[in-house]
Amino acid sequence: MAEAHERECAVCTNDFTTPKILPCGHLLCRECLISWMDSGPDAGCPLCRCPIVKQSDGSSSDTVDALPTDFVMEALVESARVLSKDHLCCVCEDVRADFICMQCQDMMCSACTKVHKKMSVSRSHDVESVSTVTPERLAASRPALCADHGDKQAEFFCRKHRLAVCSACKANKHKDCPETNHLDNEIKSVQNSLIDLTKILVEAEQNLEQAIGQLTSRLQEVDVSEQEDMAQVDKACDRLQGMVEDVRNKLKDKTRISHLQIRNSLRDVKTTLSNRLGKVTSHKHIVTRAAAVSPRPALIHMTQALTDRINSLDLSANLQGEVVVKPLSSVECLEEAVRVIEQEILILKQEKTESEQVDQPLFVFQENCGYNIRLTNCNRTAEKTNPRAKGDWVVVSRDPMFANVLYEVRLDRVTCWYNEVALGVTRISPACLPVRKWSRDLQDSVMIGPGHVYYQKCVPLQLGEGLKRIELGSQVGVLVTSSNDLHLYINGQDQGVVAKDVTQPWFAVFNISGTVSQVTALDTSRRTHRI
Q: What per-residue confidence (pLDDT) applies to 407?
């Protein structure tokens, strides 16, 4: 049921007069809409600002008249106006009316209602209590009157002229109109169309509400994600601040201790020199007095004694080596601390990426790599500190491998065109291996190479020339399937299963010969293969 405010125009706040349906679905009085459009060149709907397309070379009134009229709202307004009048009998005039004829829409008292029901023209009319009638029911019961004869019942509908007409008008004015159907049939057809439109709109409304609900849920998820991310930011910053404070305190302690040691050393040297100065000054006074006295035989003996004494004194003023040494500076330590913190920041970013992309693990090398190895690029690039050093060197993945994920490296620097590469997997956590024993203690491993790989309890596999002549920029990698099959990859191409039933956990191992001096771990997020 339409509320009273729903029958009011948003511009004039009065009941609608010739309500026009705007493209957005809102209603405005015809005259109010014309005045509103004349107020501005691009005046849209005053409720939602939806634009109103003007007729080409037409005035605002032409544009408004081209909009459909809401005849149902017009009928509701008229019915509400009838029900809102003083409830007085239309015949007696000064007697309260308790009933209303739904067809005539006249209010009557009890006596007139009895007469109304006995008259032949109104005997079939529906008369109901005024207190129970709503504007919607009264509007629905209004008789369809002829468009040309307002007092005659309309029985037909002319589709050509879009008018409800009586039988006389059908026989005269509309006799040549091709489609003039019975009004009841036309109303049924319209009702069926309205049912279909209602279904379409209900379905669209449900879909839109569902979509809006999904967006609302996503917005809530975004809010929650923002709060979680903010908490992670605070946690990471607190962690970094804690690291900075820890580094600050350690560096201050180190600086304080180093300066205290030098200070104590300087004080000891100063005390020694002060004692030496005292002895020198005392003997200087004795020698000065002796020189001022006239020569006597006793002075000869005294001079000899003074000479012997002075010769036995330490007269040097040389400072000890540590005295002239500049106090130890913490600049290098600070630079190292900054580098560590920067690396921690990068690791935090990578941890964030890992948390967002669980199926895209980060591939980095174990920090405690073998002897003569240096890691850079956040443990992604491994290089030999002495490129000319002979012998093999090994890098191992820091974290266990994920199933069906390719772990591969790119050869960034080689010193010879002929390079042999060995790679594979190991069960031993790299954190458990000593730094200087990488090349000898990789137990329970499966290694792939052109020749034997001399690791204890390894399973050497012969693959011929495929892994021998590796050129600069080549890529080699290993992948373990969820069924524990080990695959070898060369330059992105699967070389097939090289070992079966590889026991978990897996850590990727890369053993490079002395002619290869630098490799870089490639991004696993772009190299996830499904077997």
A: 92
Residue 426 neighbours by CB under 8 Å, 6+ apart: 396, 442, 443, 444, 445, 446, 506, 507, 509
Can the peptide bond before residue 297 be classed as cis, meaning omega within 30 degrees of 0? no
Contacts of 331 (CB under 8 A, 6+ apart): none
CB atoms near residue 343 (< 10 Å): 13
* 430 contacts 444 by C-beta, under 8 angstroms: no
Strands 127-129 and 99-101: antiparallel
Distance (Å, whole) CA 423 – CA 489: 10
DSSP assigned state of 148: S
At 349 the three-state DSSP class reads: helix
CA–CA distance, 257 with 251 (Å, rounded to integer): 10
Residue of 373, 338, 416 whose CA lies nearest to 511: 373
444 CB burial (10 A radius; 0-12, 13-18, 19+): middle
Q: Which of 222-231, 309-318, 506-515 has the highest mean pLDDT?
A: 222-231
Number of Cβ atoms within 10 Å of the Cβ of 268: 12
Kind and range of the H or E run holding 261:
helix 183-292
Which pLDDT band, with edges at 50, 70 and 90, does 375 fall under? confident
Report which secondary-structure segment, H or E, holds 236.
helix 183-292
Strand 381-384 vs strand 373-376: parallel, antiparallel, or unpaired?
Answer: antiparallel
For 192-207, b/e burial (b = at least 16 CB within 10 A) is eeeeeeeeeeeeeeee
Asked if residue 365 lies in contact with residue 382, where contact means CB atoms within 8 angstroms, the answer is yes
